[in-house]
Amino acid sequence: MAQQADSSQHHSFTGRGFGGKRMAMNHRRAFNMASKLQLTDAQKQQMKTVNDDYHKQLTALQANDKLSLGDYKTQLAALRKSRKDQVSNILTDDQKKMVADRKQNMQINMQARSAGNLERMKLKLGLSDDQVAKIKTQREQLHSQVKELRENTSLLPEQKRDQMKTLFAQQKDELKSVLTPEQLSKLESMKKQHMHYRSHSDAK
User: Fold this and answer.
1) Where would I find the H helices in 64-180?
2) What span, in angstroms and rounded, lies between the C-alpha atoms of 195 and 202?
3) Angle, CA 155 vertex, CA 175 and CA 157 arms, to 5°
4) For residues 57 and 79, is the Cβ–Cβ distance under 8 A?
5) pTM, to two decimals
6) CA 124 → CA 128, 131, 187, distances in Å?
7) pLDDT at 147 over 70
């Protein structure tokens, strides 16, 4: 009976999170990375074989309604690790370094954007040094929690997304506890202006 309940829960997860939009984004990301790494034709073919095999096994895993949720998670984590290891074995040492450097640069750029965003908030909202320090601490904690969540192989993608939403909702509430009502109102106006600007830019 417990097995049956666990299996039905497994189905509730596997049917979500594999939409065309996400797959298209992953394909674009893979294509851009392949271009930057200057993969040889042989490497491209090896990558294709690895990815085709991964998706074939993933489809079979999702279709297996006899697995408990725990077994599904274990097999999914093993499948992903296997693909990661196979891809790593295809790359040269220089290409692996390029991948590591790209991750590090993305991290640096993200930190720079966060610092710039906080500086703009300080100027536009009139934040005190104490408020800036509190917001900075909140963001650092959020970044650490998000990193830990992304690296958690025991969770399904849908569970990660749900927990990610919870983390950002919590961060939003924590921010409210730092800002004054006037600053909150001004921040909401800034967000609406930004969304209005983006919607007009996307329409062009």
Assistant:
1) 69-90, 93-125, 129-150, 157-178
2) 10
3) 75
4) yes
5) 0.60
6) 11, 13, 9
7) yes
